[in-house]
Fold these 2 entries.
Entry 1:
Amino acid sequence: MSKKIALVGIGKIARDQHIPSLAASAAFELAATASRHGTVEGIDAYPDLASLLAERPDIPCISLCTPPHVRYDDARRALEAGRHVMLEKPPGATLSEVHDLAALAEAKGLTLFATWHSRHAPAVSAARDWLANQTIRRLEIRWKEDVRHWHPGQDWIWEPGGLGVFDPGINALSILTAIYPHPLHLTRADLRFPENRDTPVAADLTFADGRGTDLRAAFDWLKEGSPEWDMHIDTDAGYALLSEGGARLSINGVETSAHAGPELEGEYPALYARFADLLAAGASDVDLSPMRHVADAFTLGRRTTGAAFNW
Ligand code: NAP
């Protein structure tokens, strides 16, 4: 039987992915929403999560699609009310917030799922399996897109906790931490901030794995035209390209996986299937490694100031 679930924060990703995925899910039934302005036709709507929790004890699961800097209070509220919680990426504005939520979920015997949608892109597991047997010489991430196209008017991305270019960049780091066969840590970060904003518009990162591998990432939010969401990987067995945000993998020029179709197809249905599995097992899944690298970039990063950003 399907479980009732409520969505919080009816904005871009809720409309693009969560609502269609839930409509197609046998495991969940969208029973209500909590959002100040957004609603879904035919679904009970509450202006905030507190009133939803008070009036709907019949809904055991809450999925939070709000921006990260407002997510902690609602996640805590939902767990304290005895509900299972699924978090959009990044799971919070700070690591400590999410550690706190994980401890609360464990203490109350509830499921907390910190999602990383890009890990469910079609070619990510094939890349992980192939790399497990290779000696890697170089891995270069190039994650470049036009913020005006992908985040039109979203001012929260420029506010503290909004992460700036790390909002898409953390997707790359979620893939990197899923496919890279060795522990790695950040050793250098150069962050470029628009002079009128609190979060970076570009970042160049260097990592070390203790094996001398050349490991880099370049994130840029001002690339016009087609986005570049690619990883270039040189190994002793040749060159691999994981492209289109993890949708395609080619090894030595040979495509190894069929293109899954429209952007992001399949990632969110996979997240809800995983949430259902976690609920059935009474388990949580909170992997903070992508966010740890972002936090390291902010603590170690050299700051440069560039031109003002205006929509
Ligand atoms: P969004 O549309 O700007 O925000 C989602 C909704 O959150 C808003 O419509 C708003 O609804 C509510 N909200 C509550 N407090 C808010 C505040 N202080 N500022 C702004 N909105 C607030 O954002 P989004 O693009 O859906 O992203 C939400 C999360 O999903 C982010 O963590 C993002 O990284 C992740 N995500 C986004 C995408 C994408 O393509 N956009 C892809 C994957 C993941 P009400 O006004 O009705 O309350």
Entry 2:
Amino acid sequence: MLDYLDLEADLTSEERLIRDTAREFVEDRVRPDVGDWYEAGEFPEHLIGTMGDLDFFAPNLEWGDLPGIGARAYGLLMQELEAGDSGIRSMASVQGALVMYPIATYGSDDQKERWLPDLASGDAVGCFGLTEPEHGSNPSAMETTAAPVDDGEGYVLSGTKIWITNAPIADVAVVWAKLSADTEHGDAGTVRGFVVDTARDGCTASEQEGKLSMRASATGELSLSGVEVPADAVLPGVSGMKGPLSCLTQARYGIAWGAVGATRDCFETAREYATDREQFGGPIARFQLQQSKLAEMATQHTTARQMAFRLAELKERGELRPQQVSMAKRHNVRVARDQARIAREMLGANGITTDYPPMRHAANMETVYTYEGTDDIHTLILGEDLTGIAAFE
Ligand code: TGC
Ligand code: FAD
């Protein structure tokens, strides 16, 4: 596998084990069938238990029996899963970074004990509801409300969350909503997180139809029609937009690594194809035009990967800033998006089929470029960081 600057030479034995376990899972359990799942528009739910058994869900968190692996090992896991398909990485990163992370970081002991073991094992699936029909890039304008009832005994949640990964298969949702009146949890208008059992009356999910990207992933709308939850459904440890945005930083970190895996898979596929495929009396890899594409792909992969490795160092030291994660998410997804198209082109007609991964990765990257903050939003986050002037409005 491409590792042009020998970055993996420094991996610990634990990191190698995690990388190899995930790589083997992808080779044995994902790669043979992912084209069919993609065509059918299905997420392979039968893999969730195995993914839990292999500690793919939030192994970086420190709680109970969770392994508490380092940031680099976690990044390598995301890299390998996305080399298989973005939908597989997405399921794991939503479960880990967007559901288990807020419960572990901001949740009560009861919330942790109720949900973390089941989410870790894959016995339960979680989703994260932030985006709404009228509020995507600007979630702080969300309209979903949490209205207090019975003198603060509980809340009624009302609103619609859309484009929610895992929603159609979720047992629990971390839902972000604005308090509609002053309560012990904050003044009216304050954003709070709620841990919602999706079996509650009024909570329904429907599948998003017509996706031409991220097809091997369950995406849906989460409708909250007067869902009554007890007061202890509130995540006690965080208030305001910092809650959801801090979760996004965790997931964006995983995406920065995952995109490197997709790029590598495109490179390896193109290299193998170019050395096998013969035209004009020999392998197409002997043409300078094809070598130029491979050289560029390998270089782009290497620069993106270096950025991911550096993020891991900073994260392990506790020095990583969200803006640095934005830079890596933006850059590494751009690389994957561009290079997947080049790989597809190198495979000629075969490149447009599900028999080979590049077109699937290219299509997936349209989602990855858009979710967790669009490329434009990360550009503006960097712009603000570099100039001190916010240009969102
Ligand atoms: P702003 O006023 O800038 O900040 C509010 C508070 O939050 C803090 N903060 C962050 N903390 C951690 N990580 C970050 N990335 C943070 N960004 C901001 C900030 O310090 C402040 O804290 P405090 O203590 O002062 O209150 O927030 P804003 O509301 O103006 O937001 C600005 C903006 C546009 C950057 C933000 O809204 C944004 O990132 N928008 C993009 C929306 C987005 O990414 N949505 C993703 C939805 S989830 C998803 O796509 C899942 S797909 C997953 C999958 O399938 O893999
Ligand atoms: P909009 O915000 O309407 O943006 C439209 C265009 O305008 C974009 O090009 C954008 O970059 C641009 N734009 C917006 N604001 C500005 C600005 N200030 N300056 C310049 N340009 C701007 N959300 C969740 O909450 N949970 C999930 O699990 C989840 N999973 C997803 C899975 C999939 C498959 C997809 C496609 C999306 C998912 N999302 C999820 C939603 C995702 O986070 C949003 O789609 C994303 O934040 C963008 O919001 P939007 O689609 O409403 O686009």
